[in-house]
Write a structure and sequence with these properties.
The protein is built from one helix and 29 strands. By secondary structure, the chain is mainly beta. Strands 1, 2, 3, 4, 5, 6, 7, 8, 9 and 10 form a ten-stranded mixed β-sheet that branches. The protein is globular. The two termini are 38 Å apart.
Length: 314
């Protein structure tokens, strides 16, 4: 599935970056099916995400499946004048996610039908970035004590190793599978076979840069926003406070897709109003499946099924 195609996929509630509105658009369509044979819950969210060559979201769509079962059709408009990358999948309860591998979309004007894409259930990958290895796309997830590679419907966990320079990781069960990163370049070996020299792509501006003050939760302004904070670390950890307890946990980021795992919390007694605010924050965060970052204005918006549920600013 790591191939350069020319298209995209989805339905309902599209969100476009401002620069996209000035571009000529074309429709990309297809279907997504999950590899597992199982009945899917009624409240699954269909995810479609398109990023540009710098891994910055340019178009996304979210749709609640309402009991429908795999395969799911999708269609979405995408810019014609730049190479893009597509991910499509499903988000379920308890932060269970199925995702297709990243699909390259070459610039072009003709409508494109991608056919059937396969989505697999994936474990947490923290901050997932892209590796361009010749004509092959690889997703790499940065976690506190490891990295994960997603390639050819395999997910490989690599542990840090001693290196004279750069950062070296190896598969503990198969030392012939390694990745050696130096700045934005990487050498990736799978079972001893070296992929063409890889380039690591991380957005120039991303959610890990700075501390975010939470200005509203479900359109309700926060009490004392200067005392709130939301911090994303580059290794997939996060911490937060809405004015009382300290919350810590992990997040997943794949392009414009964002979700959170379970949070641990201190147990302080909160002043009047703060407890309710914290409870609302804890209710909202598990529903998040998307973010939009306005780097120039320093604003971050988190969405659940296409609806903004949290706003923050640097």
């Amino acid at each position: 599935m790591s191939r350069w195609i020319s298209v995209l996929a989805f339905l309902a509630l599209p969100v476009l970056a401002p620069s996209v509105f000035a571009s000529e658009m074309r429709e990309v369509s297809g279907q997504i099916t999950v590899l597992e044979r199982m009945a899917l819950p009624d409240d699954m969210v269909l995810l479609v995400d398109i990023v540009d060559g710098l891994d910055t979201a340019v178009a996304v769509s979210r749709e609640v499946t309402e009991g429908r079962q795999s395969p799911f059709s999708f269609a979405l408009d995408a810019p014609v004048d730049t190479d893009l990358v597509l991910r499509v999948g499903l988000r379920g309860p308890d932060d269970v996610i199925w995702l297709s591998e990243p699909v390259g979309i070459a610039a072009g004007a003709d409508p494109l039908d991608l056919g059937v894409l396969r989505a697999m259930r994936i474990p947490p990958m923290g901050f997932a970035a892209l590796l361009y290895c010749g004509n092959q796309l690889v997703e790499i997830g940065f976690m506190p004590e490891a990295v994960r590679i997603r390639l050819n419907e395999q997910i490989i966990t690599l542990q840090p190793q001693v290196a004279a320079s750069g950062a070296l990781y190896a598969d503990a069960d198969n030392p012939a599978t390694t990745i050696h990163m130096k700045d934005a370049s990487a050498v990736l070996r799978i079972d001893g076979s070296e992929l063409s020299e890889c380039r690591l792509i991380r957005p120039e501006h991303d959610i890990t840069q700075g501390v975010w003050s939470i200005s509203s939760i479900e359109d309700r302004p926060t009490l004392f926003p200067s005392r709130t904070e939301l911090v994303f670390y580059p290794d997939g950890r996060m911490s937060a406070s809405v004015g009382c307890n300290r919350l810590i946990g992990g997040y997943r980021r794949h392009g414009g897709i964002l979700s959170f795992g379970r949070l641990a919390s201190t147990r302080l007694a909160c002043p009047e109003g703060m407890g309710e605010q914290e409870q609302k924050f804890n209710e909202v965060l598990p529903r998040v499946d998307q973010f939009f970052l306005d780097a120039e204005a320093g604003r971050l918006t988190l969405y659940a099924a296409g609806t903004p549920v949290l706003r923050a600013r640097r």
